[in-house]
Write a structure and sequence with these properties.
Blueprint (H helix, E strand, L loop, with lengths): L73 H91 L12 H20 L9 E2 L6 H4 L4 E2 L3 E6 L5 H14 L4 E5 L4 H10 L11 E5 H7 L7 H16 L3 E5 L1 H6 L7 H13 L3 E6 L13 H4 L2 E9 L5 E10 L9 E5 L4 E4 L8
Parallel strand pairs: 3-7, 3-8, 4-5, 4-6, 6-7
Antiparallel strand pairs: 1-2, 8-9, 9-10, 10-11
Helix pairs in contact: 1-2
């Protein structure tokens, strides 16, 4: 069998061979050309028919250069090899993914353990801070109550000693122990009721704030007809304190007007309701106004803003008869004037307040502790000053402090008091540290 000169494949398996190879390298097929066997023809068996020579035809034999030999498709083997290779790659990838999955599970478990540990530590810290906060808020009141109890017990003990130390030679009458125990129990019951309830103060000619201990500091309350300045830095709760006085006066039957020059009426009411002072509790005796509503009220009037505001307050006072007025704030009111607000202008404003025979609380945004007569004339022209400040304690805590700097015509306590709001009420107590007096 002779291979075509242009083909270099094994006719049996299709493996590639080089020209001149005598055997296939894969299946061992013999590639050497084989000699054709001679055809033996017996002349005795051939008979010539002379009569049919005319019917003889010429037969031409076409030469064949190539012979098509059937062989297996070599692409199947190639594809099989590629599939094997891909299978091995997929197995390797699967192994790597399993390793990564194991590592991720271990890391997730470690992070979860760390978070749980951190959460437990955070909860301990929250509990500790909560205990400190509660202690800081209620410790002043508890100490004040304990001090009053100790004082009353000392008075009771002194009375007992006086009974025992009577004049020499005089025999003491026999005392019934049961009666003495009953009297002692009555005294302690009265003392407990006195400690639990604030002492009564005179209400003649003063406006009660109805804030625990503040009326005591003010000698009974704010004298009626006074113009009192509430001065402090931002965050000292000046607006909330003045609104609380106004709200509680309205609850107890004293009508009032709150004029906010900066905040909107809706914002003020929403903020005060969150502090436990809903508008509905005043039975319509408390009215809150802002600049937007004020523009509608004075749309038909002419003049500068100071004259318009003063005219509106005058008409409202004649219509409703309110007895308490809050201006928040004085600096914003000054900014509305078209010219420099002089000391004489301020004096005229305060005198005009007095002419209405109402009590006025003015919120001031000054931050200095030393009052300058040129820059802060209101401190000298006002009848009273309530100073509010933020005080840093020794352990980096901050407390709000308040004190009455002056109050004309009243015997006030000028000491600083720590002030905090529990969401419903103000509480005042003497500071336990960093006392400036």
């Amino acid at each position: 069998m002779r291979l075509p000169p242009s083909k270099f494949e094994c006719p049996r398996c299709g493996f590639g061979v080089r020209p001149g190879d005598g055997q296939c390298g894969r299946c061992g097929e013999d590639l050497k050309p084989k000699a054709a066997k001679p055809v033996q023809v017996s002349l005795t068996s051939v008979k010539l028919d002379r009569g049919k020579e005319a019917e003889r035809s010429t037969v031409h034999i076409r030469s064949i250069e190539t012979i098509q030999v059937g062989r297996p498709d070599s692409s199947i083997q190639v594809r099989a090899d590629e599939l094997d290779k891909r299978e091995k790659e997929l197995q390797e990838r699967e192994r790597r993914l399993n390793v990564l999955s194991t590592e991720l599970e271990e890391r997730s478990k470690k992070k979860l353990d760390q978070k749980e540990a951190q959460a437990s530590v955070d909860m301990d810290e929250v509990r500790r801070r909560l205990r400190e906060e509660l202690t800081r808020h209620f410790e002043p009141e508890l100490e004040a109550l304990q001090a009053q109890l100790d004082e009353k017990e000392a008075e009771l003990q002194e009375a007992r000693l006086k009974l025992q130390m009577m004049d020499a030679g005089q025999e003491m009458e026999e005392v019934d122990e049961a009666e003495l125990a009953r009297i002692t129990e009555d005294i302690f019951r009265i003392l407990r009721s006195q400690v639990g309830a604030p002492p009564k103060v005179k209400e003649t000619g003063v406006l009660r704030t109805h804030i625990p201990r503040l009326d005591e500091v003010l000698g009974g309350g704010i004298p009626q007809g006074h113009t009192v300045l509430f001065n402090g830095a931002p965050g000292t709760m000046k607006s909330i304190l003045t609104y609380t006085i106004l709200h509680r006066a309205a609850v107890n039957g004293t009508p009032g007007l709150y004029l906010s020059v900066e905040q909107s009426r809706r914002s003020v009411l929403r903020q005060m309701e969150r502090m436990g002072m809903p508008e509905g509790a005043t039975n319509g005796l408390l009215r809150v106004m802002d600049m937007r509503e004020l523009r509608r009220e004075v749309a038909e009037h002419e003049g500068n803003w100071r004259e318009l505001i003063m005219g509106y307050v005058y008409r409202e006072q004649e219509a409703t008869g309110f007895r308490l007025f809050v201006l928040d704030s004085l600096e914003s009111f000054k900014a509305l004037t078209e010219h420099c607000f002089t000391r004489q202008d301020l004096k005229d404003l305060f005198d005009w307040f007095k002419s209405l025979n109402i009590t006025v609380l003015v919120v001031s945004e000054s931050t200095t502790d030393e009052y300058d007569e040129e820059a802060q004339g209101e401190a000298y022209l006002s009848d009273g000053i309530m100073e509010l400040l933020m005080r840093e304690m020794t352990d980096s805590r901050v407390q709000r402090w308040v004190r009455c700097v002056k109050m004309r015509g009243a015997n006030v306590d000028n000491r600083y008091y720590s002030m905090f709001h529990d969401g419903k009420d103000f509480n005042l107590a003497l500071p336990l540290a960093n006392q400036p007096f």
